[in-house]
Backbone:
């Protein structure tokens, strides 16, 4: 981490990852040292536990003003339009994801910021990418606008490292599963929504096929990976903006079967929609040896432990017995 106390800006703080990462960063660095921003009005625990502001990342002057006003030296840039939503509005996806990223990178150089973390995604891959044990260095030919913007973001991040000496870091998130925030427009959201539907209704209609296998990660591991990379010794990093990170890989059917161990009557039907084609273009498992070697990445959660914890948390929230 920076030798000085991190003064952290989180963009997209109201999103699935941002809402939990911001709270974890506040616990780590002090609540007053982590600014939560979003284009939406911030409410709930984020508004109650630390500073908040409105930020449209596509507006460079607004971004510059926020960084200057709050004395920011570290940025976690999470503001983005996700895959399924991006396919419905590709122009918006490009503007938010690319203009926002370029603005953050320019501020990193022009305002001499420290670490800037800009996540990528398995959406950077495509049908030509090896699906099993997808390598760190491989074909990047995505079939979604979201994926295109993530490849561009990786390349821009690496360019700013080489060209300007900026400290840009990024990791390719798999599908993220969380008990705290509802699905947010991603293709892997079936692995989140299935838990909510199991607890609340005892049945679920899945929008991908039963044998669809995708890389996933439980939110506690996601937060750990993100902070670990941001705090990693820069002298150890051979890669910068494009680390593969793996944790779990399972099919939709595997997940349903694991849930049934806790809720025996749980019923699932499968009605694939346009998101099936997106899922089919992504890996089924990830080779994350570079992350393990360069900054010590190691996941803590497997499918049984994650499923039990998700159901326990959601059952407590909705007053159900898992």
Residues:
């Amino acid at each position: 981490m920076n030798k000085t106390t991190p003064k952290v800006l989180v963009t997209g703080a109201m999103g699935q990852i941002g809402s939990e990462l911001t709270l974890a960063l506040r616990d780590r660095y002090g609540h007053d040292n982590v600014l939560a921003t979003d284009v939406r009005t911030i409410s709930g625990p984020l508004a109650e536990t630390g500073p908040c502001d409105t930020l449209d990342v596509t507006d460079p002057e607004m971004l510059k003003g926020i960084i200057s006003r709050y004395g920011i030296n570290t940025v976690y840039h999470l503001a983005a339009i996700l895959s399924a939503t991006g396919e419905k509005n590709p122009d918006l996806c490009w503007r938010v994801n690319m203009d926002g990223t370029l603005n953050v990178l320019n501020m990193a150089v022009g305002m001499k910021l420290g670490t800037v973390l800009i996540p990528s995604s398995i959406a950077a891959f495509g049908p030509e990418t090896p699906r099993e044990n997808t390598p760190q260095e491989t074909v990047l030919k995505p079939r979604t606008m979201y994926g295109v913007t993530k490849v561009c973001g990786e390349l821009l991040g690496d360019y700013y490292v080489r060209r300007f000496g900026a400290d840009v870091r990024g990791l390719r998130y798999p599908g993220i599963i969380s008990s705290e925030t509802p699905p947010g427009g991603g293709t892997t959201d079936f692995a989140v929504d299935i838990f909510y539907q199991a607890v609340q209704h005892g049945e679920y209609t899945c929008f991908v096929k039963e044998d669809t296998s995708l890389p996933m990660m439980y939110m506690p591991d996601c937060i750990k990976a993100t902070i670990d990379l941001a705090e990693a010794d820069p002298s150890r990093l051979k890669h910068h903006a494009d680390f593969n990170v793996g944790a779990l890989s399972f099919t939709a059917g595997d997940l349903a079967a694991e849930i049934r161990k806790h809720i025996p009557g749980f019923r699932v039907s499968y009605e694939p929609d346009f998101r099936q084609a997106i899922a089919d273009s992504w890996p089924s498992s990830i080779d994350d040896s570079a992350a393990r070697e360069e900054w010590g990445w190691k996941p803590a959660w497997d499918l049984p432990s994650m499923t039990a914890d998700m159901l326990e948390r959601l059952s407590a929230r909705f007053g159900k017995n898992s």
